[in-house]
Amino acid sequence: xxxxxxxxxxxxxxxxxxxxxxxxxxxxxxxxxxxxxxxxxxxxxxxxxxxxxxxxxxxxxxxxxxxxxxxxxxxxxxxxxxxxxxxxxxxxxxxxxxxxxxxxxxxxxxxxxxxxxxxxxxxxxxxxxxxxxxxxxxxxxxxxxxxxxxxxxxxxxxxxxxxxxxxxxxxxxxxxxxxxxxxxxxxxxxxxxxxxxxxxxxxxxxxxxxxxxxxxxxxxxxxxxxxxxxxxx
Length: 233
Description:
mainly alpha; UraD-like; disordered N terminus; 15 helices; 2 domains; single chain
């Protein structure tokens, strides 16, 4: 059994332990999780952190650390529903997106999965998109997942001027649009991310919402790839 499968099964078992009568897509509350897991004595393991943050709609357990060897498409197709749902939620924190992708199995190839992921995302309600945004930190802020740290690697070497610009721009963006500045940061430098932020501040809310959804789709594809095939290194 792969590391990915073992950890995904751990998540499923803990959710089932809380209340086996609930549906497989049920998200336990923090208090219910802590009643089943010795949080203090066991320590803040990635699995426990994932469950606690999943309950609040803000996932921190990273798809990369969850599946260092990659699941593979065949194994993903064969996963029990709850395990597949948990794996997808670490890619995108929108519950309806994860449920729809689980329901669409089996996928003939990775492109079919990507196409479904894009199509489902395009039809998500704004409330579900907001849930997805909850799984992402601000650009330039301290990443709270390994995935975000990888994706924002270009900010790590940014100077104080760029960091200050990102911090100021984030606040202006959130004040204008009511949500975080989301951008597919993979491969982009801090300067590029600041330039994009400045440009997008000129958008009207409707246009910006469309741009943000496009960026989210790109991020989802990157995370799904890592989930299935593991690290590229």
